[in-house]
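Duplicate of #3305? Posting structure anyway:
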């Protein structure tokens, strides 16, 4: 076996095919050396607060995080590619609220600008809010809506939170530390250690790294070419393009109706509105994003589609009989069990009862479905 691989390597090499090591060396040569990337000669600040690079301990901590960040090239590439899609929204909202622009880098290291990012502790969304903190700062978080995933709502909540932290601590670096570990925990460390300088506090290891991860993101995104990342605007993911509509749902309404009224499909609506959980909009008022240009005629199409859906539902109702269960009903109508749960917003772990009314779309109806055309 060893002889076989040795011969194969010689053949491939003779054919001009480079080994993995050679390819890696060729690729690495296009990047600045790691040693060069750690040479920081210019002053650095976060939100206008200088980073004390004269301190050897501070410089070491920064170099460590900078090296680790640079080494994760795929992640940094995705940061940069997503930046055109989301950072202009964050920058505009920070500016309108007279907040430091550098706070945008918190969202980058928290979520890598991913709406559905989640942590083991239950933090979710662009700014990684825990449920309790998100609700405290005005985010709707329930079974139907999770605004931690909405770039506009979550950024507004983060702005208010940072305002409170800065008013409490008087420092943006300490505010960032509190954002990471909680303000009560940070305040207790400040009192115990009798010092209120982030760079001189002994904090949980994650929080000790936190500011340096933020600063590393700032250094790279401020000057990506210096670190070997060369992009044209065409390489970046395009900005969000959308119309915003306001609708009132008088009852729980399937999201596919919103999609059809927007002349698009389900996934587009879910991607534009990642805060929507599941397949329905709950009864009430909603502000939604739809594809650019779809606002014209939307409300007419939506009203028509809702009326058709209600009429169709009346014809597709099955009344649960004695001895029925979800499995037998799904088999009787030859429909998937998960679809039956979705259509009727059921919990598969809870029983159904005689007299319950279920909406069922048989195969012939589902297979013949055609979305409405634009008016």
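Output from current build:
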């Amino acid at each position: 076996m060893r002889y076989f691989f040795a011969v194969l390597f010689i053949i491939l090499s003779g054919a001009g095919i480079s080994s993995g090591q050679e390819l890696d060396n060729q690729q690495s040569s296009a990047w600045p050396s790691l040693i060069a990337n750690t040479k920081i000669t210019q002053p650095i600040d976060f939100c206008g607060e200088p980073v004390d690079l004269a301190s050897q301990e501070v410089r070491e901590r920064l170099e460590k995080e900078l090296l680790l960040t640079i080494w994760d090239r795929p992640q940094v590439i995705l940061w940069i590619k997503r930046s055109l899609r989301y950072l202009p929204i964050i920058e505009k909202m920070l500016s309108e609220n007279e907040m430091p622009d550098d706070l945008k880098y918190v969202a980058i290291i928290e979520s890598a600008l991913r709406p559905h990012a989640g942590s083991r502790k239950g933090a979710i969304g662009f700014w990684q809010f825990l449920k309790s903190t998100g609700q405290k700062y005005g985010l709707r978080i329930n079974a139907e809506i999770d605004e931690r995933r909405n770039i506009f709502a979550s950024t507004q909540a983060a702005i208010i939170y940072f305002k409170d932290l800065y008013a409490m601590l008087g420092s943006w670096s300490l505010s960032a530390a509190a954002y990471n570990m909680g303000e009560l925990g940070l305040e207790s460390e400040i009192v115990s250690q009798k010092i209120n300088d982030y760079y001189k506090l002994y904090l949980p290891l994650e929080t000790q790294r936190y500011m340096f991860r933020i600063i590393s993101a700032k250094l790279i995104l401020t000057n990506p070419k210096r670190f070997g990342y060369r992009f044209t605007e065409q390489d970046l993911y395009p900005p969000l393009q959308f119309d915003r509509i306001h609708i009132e749902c008088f009852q729980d309404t399937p999201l596919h109706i919103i999609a059809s009224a927007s002349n698009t499909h389900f996934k587009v609506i879910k991607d534009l509105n990642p805060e929507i959980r599941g397949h329905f909009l709950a009864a009430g008022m909603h502000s939604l994003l739809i594809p650019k240009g779809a606002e014209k005629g939307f409300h007419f199409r939506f009203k028509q589609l809702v009326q058709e859906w209600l009429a169709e539902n009346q014809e597709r109702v099955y009344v649960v009989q004695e001895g029925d269960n979800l499995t037998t009903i799904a088999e009787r109508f030859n429909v998937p069990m998960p679809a039956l749960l979705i259509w009727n917003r059921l919990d598969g772990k809870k029983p159904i009862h005689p007299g319950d009314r279920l909406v069922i779309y048989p195969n012939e109806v589902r297979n013949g479905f055609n979305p409405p055309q634009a008016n």
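Confirmed duplicate; merging threads. Confidence is low (pLDDT under 50) at residues 1-27, 364-375. The chain has 17 helices and eight strands.
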